[in-house]
Design a protein that fits this description.
Blueprint (H helix, E strand, L loop, with lengths): L2 E3 L3 E3 L5 E9 L1 H4 L9 E2 L10 H20 L8 E5 L6 H6 L7 E3 L6 H14 L5 E8 L1 H8 L15 E2 L2 E8 L5 E7 L14 H20 L8 E4 L3 H14 L8 E3 H4 L3 H4 L5 E2 L1 H17 L5 E5 L1 E3 L3 H5 L6 E3 L1 E6 L2
Parallel strand pairs: 3-4, 5-6, 5-7, 8-13, 11-12, 11-14
Antiparallel strand pairs: 1-2, 2-10, 3-9, 7-9, 10-17, 14-17, 15-16
InterPro entries: SpoVAD (IPR010894), SpoVAD_sf (IPR038369), Thiolase-like (IPR016039)
Pfam families: SpoVAD
Protein name: Stage V sporulation protein AD
Length: 337
């Protein structure tokens, strides 16, 4: 039996494994510091499509196809897909995965969707409801700007606190088949609202949720920061990272020595003009697959806490003057000899 830990966490008895994964990103992401690690880099951010939304659907389709191929599986061998994106009614997912004809759970946790989809997929495998599931998330800079902020043609000035939505997708095959990486537990986040109103400061909106989930994880599992080779947040950027450190120190935890943020790693902020860093569903999903997961597979890292973070706003809520609450979901990854 899997074990309920504390108020927000689960430890899996029948451990789900990450059979394989894939990452597909856009041109700007490929020109960044992690360019050599991604599986596929597009030369055109429209990926040969007529619209940004169609391009994002193509990102998911390509990532899913590649993850299945690397796993040696056919679509018929996948029981369920857990997938989502940033667009209204998750249309990137709906149109991108239509042709696979696999039962689909569409999920939305904003930029935390990679953690949410992996958590749900892991629960499904651990409970014995599937031998193989596929989890996928994506985002696209242009489609996100068009929906949440301003069309690119507007040419608005971006503040230094802004993060750049990653054009990318990450897909993971979770399985009962033994590999070198297992999902040993999860910590499901709560909605946290610190009264942030600025839609161009996602780091400030999401950092409180990240701090809440990380602290809950430590409390539920009775663990300490130094027990983890890396604590990886998804999309905080440089602004959110500093807030996260301060909030966790107030809770009695110091993670400065072993913290990384996918949004900081994926871009060279000075050379690529991305201000505070990267964000978006595809940020943490692609960076974990391409850059961090191989470190666990090789045994360089033995234990990692992966915490994608999301800002729960819409154009409707923002235009009506609502706050920007955040959420973060923790996934504990461990090396298997």
């Amino acid at each position: 039996m899997s074990e309920v830990k504390g108020k927000q966490s689960l430890r899996f008895a029948k451990t789900p494994f990450i059979l394989n994964s894939a990452s597909v990103v856009g041109k700007k992401e490929g020109e960044g510091p992690l360019g050599e690690y991604f599986d596929v880099i597009g030369n055109d951010d429209k990926f040969g499509c007529e619209s940004w939304e169609e391009a994002e659907s193509t990102l998911q389709k390509e990532a899913a196809t590649l993850a299945l191929g690397k796993s040696g599986l056919t679509p018929e061998e996948i029981r369920y897909i857990f997938a989502g994106d940033l667009l209204g009614q998750t249309i990137a997912t709906s149109f991108g995965l239509l042709d696979f004809e696999i039962p689909l759970f569409g999920v939305y946790g904003a930029c935390s969707t990679a953690g949410e989809s992996m958590s749900l997929g892991a629960m499904c495998v651990a409970a014995g409801f599937a031998e193989n599931v596929l989890t996928i998330t994506s985002s696209h800079f242009a489609s996100a700007e068009k929906q949440f902020r301003f069309p690119l043609e507007y040419g608005n000035q971006r503040p230094m606190s802004a993060t750049w939505t990653v054009t990318g997708s990450g897909a993971y095959v979770l399985s009962t088949q033994r590999t070198h990486v297992k999902i040993s537990g999860i910590t499901t986040g709560k909605i946290v609202d610190y009264g942030i109103h600025d839609s161009l400061n996602m780091g400030a909106a999401m950092a409180p949720a990240a701090a809440d989930t990380i602290a809950a994880h430590f409390a539920d599992f009775g663990s300490k920061p130094e027990e983890y080779d890396r604590i990886i947040t998804g999309d905080l950027g440089t602004v959110g990272q500093e807030i996260l450190f301060d909030l966790l120190k107030k809770k009695g935890y110091d993670i400065e020595n072993n913290h990384s943020d996918c949004g900081i790693e994926i871009f060279d902020a000075k050379e690529q003009d991305t201000d505070a860093g990267g964000s978006g569903c595809g940020c943490s999903a692609s960076v974990l697959s391409a850059y961090y997961l191989p470190k666990i597979i090789s045994g360089e890292w033995k234990k990692v806490l992966f915490v994608p973070t999301g800002a729960l706003l819409s154009t409707v809520s923002y235009n009506e003057g609502k706050n920007v609450p955040g959420i973060a979901h923790g996934v504990m990854l461990e090396y298997v000899p």
